[in-house]
Amino acid sequence: MAGRIGDPRPGSPRESLGSVSRTADQPCPDKGKGKLHEDDVRHQINAAHNERLRNQPGAAAADRDPRDEVIAQLERRLAQMEAKQSANIPTAGASNDPGLNALMNKVSALERELAEGRGDPIIQVRTRTPFTNRVLSAPIPEKYRGNAIKSYDGRSDPQEHFSRYQNNMLMVNASDEYLCRWFLSTLEGPAYEWFNGLPEGSIDSWQDLAQRFLTHFAGRKRAKKYFTHLLSVKQQHEESLRSFIDRWTRETEEVEGADERTLLALYQGALRSSPYARSLITDPSRSYAKALQRGGLYADADELHNHKREGGHPPRKTNPSSAPGPSPAGQGA
């Protein structure tokens, strides 16, 4: 039997609108979200509207349908929920924590001061040191503070600086700890920065520091020539004995691998024929150093003779106190 007139049939548009109205009027069970799901509401509105259009006999049926009011109510309710949701979104950067807000205000003020150049400069204070406590706590003589030594900047031969410093300090019997601490005063530039970069507490002895220093700057060490290079060094025909001895001494500083006996033999072979060269054959020198000393005396005699021949004043001897007792032709050199 047909249903009663006015009763909504299952699936009819009236029943659909009724369910939409009931859904919109019911509170959202999920109060944590605080609103109905907008997508679901829109879907129900569109479904009800489409159903109404399908039931119209044609475009001429323009009579106002009571169900249009229900749809309008749902649309107004949806607009209200969207407006309420937008009002509940917190402003960026705002916080309910007064302490956090105060901190953020201080940070903003500091940023403005730095941007305007009024902030206090940041100073980094280095408190660590490569020396161990043993090196730092050792007593240092009050009267002695080291002799003047040319500073090392890391651009020259480290072995020269190391040898000069160590020999200078050993003359005053400096302790191992003092060798470490005073060495810092002889560094500058890149060498000083290298020392500051050493690990904290890594230097406990002079041996530690010397090894690290020589290893790090090994690339700056001047390469030595082999002593056979001296075979090519000869006294020129017009070269004075004084000039040759000076040149020979500089050349020997650039070679390695030769003992005194070898140096003496090479030196004698480099001299041109002269009274001095013949004296080294007839009266051999006891050492290489003595041979050079005798050569200095012969050079003084040659210069004096030349000045007298030219009518000038005799030259001043470079180091008369180092001359030995016997004359150049004497026996004992």
Brief write-up:
With 333 residues, this protein is mostly helical.
The number of E-state strands comes to: 2
Proportion of residues in helical segments: 40-55%
The separation of the N and C termini measures 153 Å
- Main-sheet strand order equals 1-2
Can you tell me the overall shape?
A: elongated
Biggest pleated-sheet summary:
2 strands, parallel
Which regions contain 5 or more consecutive residues with pLDDT less than 50? 1-17, 19-25, 31-35, 320-333
Helix and strand succession?
Answer: HHHHHHHHHEHEHHH
Which class do the helix and strand fractions yield? mainly alpha
Strand content: under 5%
Average pLDDT, rounded to a whole number, is: 75
Helices, strands, pairings?
Elements (H helix, E strand, L loop, with lengths): L12 H13 L12 H18 L10 H23 L9 H19 L16 H5 L20 H13 L5 H8 L6 H7 L9 H11 L8 E2 L14 H12 L2 E2 L3 H11 L4 H8 L5 H23 L23
Parallel strand pairs: 1-2
Helix pairs in contact: 1-2, 1-3, 2-3
3D architecture notes:
Pfam families: Retrotrans_gag. The protein is mainly alpha-helical. Among the domains are: 11-48, no CATH class; 133-220, no CATH class; 226-322, Orthogonal Bundle (Non-ribosomal Peptide Synthetase Peptidyl Carrier Protein, Chain A), CATH 1.10.1200. It has 13 helices and two strands. Strands 1-2 form a two-stranded parallel sheet. Helix 1 (13-25) runs antiparallel to helix 2 (38-55), helix 1 packs parallel to helix 3 (66-88) and helix 2 packs antiparallel against helix 3 (66-88). The protein is elongated and about 145 Å long.
